[in-house]
Design a protein that fits this description.
With 201 residues, this protein is of the alpha/beta class. The protein contains seven helices and seven strands.
Amino acid sequence: MPSTAASGRMGGTSMNSTLRRTVLSAVVIATIGAALVYGDRLQAWVAGGEGLIQFGLIALGLLAAVAFLQRLIGRLREGPMLEVEELKRRLDGGEELLLMDVRTREDFVGEQSHLPVARNLPLEELADRLDELGGDHQQTIAIICRTDRRSAKAAALLARRGFADVHVVRGGMTAWLDRNWPTARVQEQGGAHDKRTADTE
């Protein structure tokens, strides 16, 4: 019997795939329909020189639709946002997931600290360190940063590399700290890292 996490992963992946196919099909059908209905009219406009403005507006509209579609597909490929409450629930419940912190090393050990189970893979180094994630492209990955902007870029990169179950933690460490939840403080002492629970004031 598949686990809840696996079922959710499969369902989310299937839903995203279905939605992408639906959007693509709609755009293709609309484009073909426009060509069939207005093809002769567009040809007459261009030939007569009196409808160039209308033709230009239609062309701009199609370009805008393509740009929007690309952004929409990109968002779908990033996977759903994960609220910090849900992340904490999963971590507290011992759910199997990889929590990846894509901030710089300085930020990872800095003022905001980090979550004890987080693995630091800075966004700038991620493309060259993907092998550290292992070969399981179906594993659940939650990405966190200071807010969620760097996480979104990292999620897009992982999606392009075939990782199917990637989530961006909405609000990042800022949202986590706003709730006064504990973090890990890292102090470097002779190259060793001492992790301890931070005071939450």
